[in-house]
């Protein structure tokens, strides 16, 4: 199936848009009329540009206020259509979109509209042009694809067909199974867009908040399954009106667009349980069983400081890499690598970003299949030379140019700790603090990148997303979005910063880009862990007494219980399913920190109500070193 995208979906002039769309691998492009009209080239020259870019024009749009007009507007509408046909013939475009009339002068009536389209079809046929009719969700008389199809059916002309747009159907909550009865050859093109569930005027939502399939909340997969049932085999085209996209990188948005279409059609081709059908050949989204290790790029001097920091959390040096300057620290089921190599990718990452968690390794069912799917979704593979006898671990580039490695239990990769590492003498003085596993990673990025990385994770892994929330930093809002596996073995919180005065924005500025900002470790008993940490030299982030007075009153806690939390600087949250306890480390190296947590019952959140208190405490900790005050 051919992929297409409307020029209105991305930023730049027409030439820049075409270059980005072509580079992303699309087959075709919808020429949005305003992009054409504002470009200083003839229709013939624009058509040549499109073809030179390896693209075809899938659609010329939009043509407005056509059907059901009284005279003299009706005659004028046909004259306008003829002028557009002239332009299309020079462009080399053979399909025009007519959207349902929104004019207050428009007259209702299915038969009246059908008669207009029958006459338009006759005129279009003489030019070798087809016309598609789309029901706008805010159309004056036609705002439902079922009515638009009835107009097309009654027009009964081979050059008149239906255009389906997922936004216009799904935003109005029209039953998608009604699409299944439409003959596939009468659908001329299918346009796709997602959107968040926001209660607002549909026209405003459509013009400003559309996004790629998979980034929003609309049931686009169900829509496409209904389209597929018709036998439709024409182009799938993205039509995305989004203020953020129009101000972003055309290259990035184009790549995201094609990724979203590939992922969508793969999921449509699978059964409800996710198993592959005849329509898909890709490996399924990868099920992540946990975080195998987190790797820090650092210098020897800072590695000593970070190692001392880790020891206060109970980590012990357990092994060293056989050929690289990499040391493994362990506590419970958590593996942390400190890489002080003077060459290679880790060193380059340190030079640019300083000490940072530049790589994470995920345990999946099939590492090779995970990389195959990731590459099909547009992820960049990564590989560097390894010494003889060592394992080559498959990897891709992730957020901020960092790395995501993959490991499994069914290949030689399962032996990585025995093959690539050799044990060192155990550090007996370190206290077992009871940390069990990595609960989640928190990645910080500019807010405009958040939808892109959300789509990246959603297309590769078997995860769901939680509703986006706004975190109140004293210096501004930070948008937070979570992706997580059903069993909680894999969780990532993505935090989008809008200015550098926020703690997240300061971290990005100091790191020169997006990165993992904190790692959360789980424990089975946070009070026992906190007591042990008091013996290791660990200094928790100090939380003011005012917080505990408030949390005691808000949740009706026993005063002695609240005092116990206050004494150990433990934060608290509760929902209808369970309780959540958090303990934070001080900030290390300009904004990075660790979190220790305990989940009780069925609590599935991340303590978002506590974020403002945590951020304020961290800013107090950082301010002597230059953190801008609010």
Q: How many separate structural domains?
A: 3
Helix content: 25-40%
Biggest sheet features: 9 strands, mixed
Q: Note the beta-strand portion.
A: 15-25%
Instruction: Give me the number of helical elements.
Output: 21
Detail the topology: elements first, then pairings.
Blueprint: E1 3-6, H1 14-24, E2 28-32, H2 33-37, H3 43-52, E3 56-63, H4 73-91, E4 95-99, H5 110-127, E5 130-134, H6 145-155, E6 160-165, H7 166-170, E7 187-192, H8 202-208, H9 220-229, E8 236-238, H10 243-246, H11 250-268, E9 288-297, H12 300-312, E10 316-321, E11 326-331, E12 334-339, H13 344-353, E13 356-364, H14 367-376, E14 381-382, E15 395-397, E16 403-407, H15 416-419, E17 421-423, E18 435-446, H16 450-460, E19 464-465, E20 469-473, E21 476-484, E22 491-497, H17 503-511, E23 515-523, H18 526-533, H19 545-555, H20 559-567, E24 571-574, E25 578-584, E26 593-601, H21 611-622
Parallel strand pairs: 1-2, 1-8, 2-3, 3-4, 4-5, 5-6, 6-7, 7-8, 9-12, 13-16, 18-22, 23-26
Antiparallel strand pairs: 9-13, 10-11, 10-17, 11-12, 14-15, 15-16, 18-23, 19-21, 20-21, 21-22, 24-25, 25-26
């Amino acid at each position: 199936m051919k992929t297409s995208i409307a020029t209105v979906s991305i930023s730049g002039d027409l030439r820049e848009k075409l270059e980005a769309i072509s580079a992303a691998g699309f087959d075709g492009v919808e020429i949005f009329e305003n992009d054409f009209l504002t470009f200083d080239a003839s229709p013939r020259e624009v058509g040549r540009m499109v073809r030179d870019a390896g693209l075809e024009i899938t659609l010329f749009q939009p043509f407005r206020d056509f059907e059901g007009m009284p005279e003299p507007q009706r005659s004028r509408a046909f004259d306008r259509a003829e002028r557009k046909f002239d332009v299309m013939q020079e462009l080399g475009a053979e399909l025009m979109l007519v959207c349902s009339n929104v004019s207050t002068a428009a007259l209702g009536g299915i038969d009246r509209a059908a008669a207009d389209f029958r006459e338009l079809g006759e005129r279009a046929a003489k030019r070798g042009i087809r016309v598609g009719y789309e029901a706008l969700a805010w159309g004056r008389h036609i705002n439902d694809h079922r009515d638009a199809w009835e107009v097309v059916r009654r027009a009964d002309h081979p050059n008149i067909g239906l255009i389906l747009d997922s936004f216009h159907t799904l935003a109005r909550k029209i039953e998608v199974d009604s699409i299944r009865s439409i003959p596939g050859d009468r659908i001329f093109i299918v346009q796709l867009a997602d959107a968040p569930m926001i209660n607002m005027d549909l026209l405003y939502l459509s013009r400003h908040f559309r996004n790629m399939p998979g980034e929003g909340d609309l049931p686009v997969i169900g829509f496409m399954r209904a389209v597929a049932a018709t036998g439709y085999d024409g182009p799938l085209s993205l039509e995305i009106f989004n203020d953020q996209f129009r101000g972003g990188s055309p290259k990035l948005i184009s790549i995201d667009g094609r990724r979203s279409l590939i992922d969508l059609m793969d999921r449509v081709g699978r059964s409800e349980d996710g198993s592959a059908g005849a329509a898909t050949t890709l490996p399924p989204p990868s099920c992540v069983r946990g975080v195998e290790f987190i790797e820090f790029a650092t210098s020897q001097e800072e590695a000593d400081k970070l190692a001392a920091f880790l020891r206060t959390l109970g980590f012990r040096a357990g092994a060293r890499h056989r050929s690289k300057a990499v040391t493994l620290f362990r506590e419970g089921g958590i593996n942390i690598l400190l890489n002080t190599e003077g060459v290679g990718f880790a060193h380059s990452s340190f030079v640019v970003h300083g000490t940072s968690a530049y790589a994470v390794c995920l345990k999946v069912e099939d590492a090779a299949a995970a990389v195959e799917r990731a590459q099909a979704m547009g992820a960049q593979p990564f590989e560097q030379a390894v010494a003889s006898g060592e394992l080559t671990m498959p990897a891709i580039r992730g957020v901020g140019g960092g790395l995501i490695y993959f490991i499994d239990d069914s290949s030689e990769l399962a032996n990585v700790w025995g093959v690539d590492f050799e044990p060192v003498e155990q550090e007996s003085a370190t206290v077992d603090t009871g940390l069990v596993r990595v609960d989640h990673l928190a990645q910080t990025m500019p807010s405009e990148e958040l939808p892109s990385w959300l789509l990246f994770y959603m297309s590769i892994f078997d995860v769901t997303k939680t509703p986006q929330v706004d975190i109140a930093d004293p210096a501004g809002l930070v948008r937070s979005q979570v992706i997580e596996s059903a069993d909680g073995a894999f969780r990532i919180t993505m935090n989008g910063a809008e200015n550098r005065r926020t703690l997240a924005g300061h971290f990005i500025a100091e790191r020169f880009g997006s990165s993992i900002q904190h790692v959360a470790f789980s424990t089975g008993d946070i009070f026992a862990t906190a007591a042990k940490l008091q013996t290791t030299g660990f200094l928790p982030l100090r939380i003011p007494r005012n917080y505990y007075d408030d949390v005691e009153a808000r949740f009706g806690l026993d005063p002695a219980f609240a005092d116990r939390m206050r004494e150990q600087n433990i934060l608290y949250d509760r929902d209808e399913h369970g309780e959540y306890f958090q303990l934070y480390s001080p900030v290390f190296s300009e904004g990075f920190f660790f979190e220790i947590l305990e989940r009780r019952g069925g609590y599935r959140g991340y303590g978002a109500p506590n974020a403002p208190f945590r951020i304020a405490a961290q800013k107090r900790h950082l301010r002597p070193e230059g953190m801008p005050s609010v």
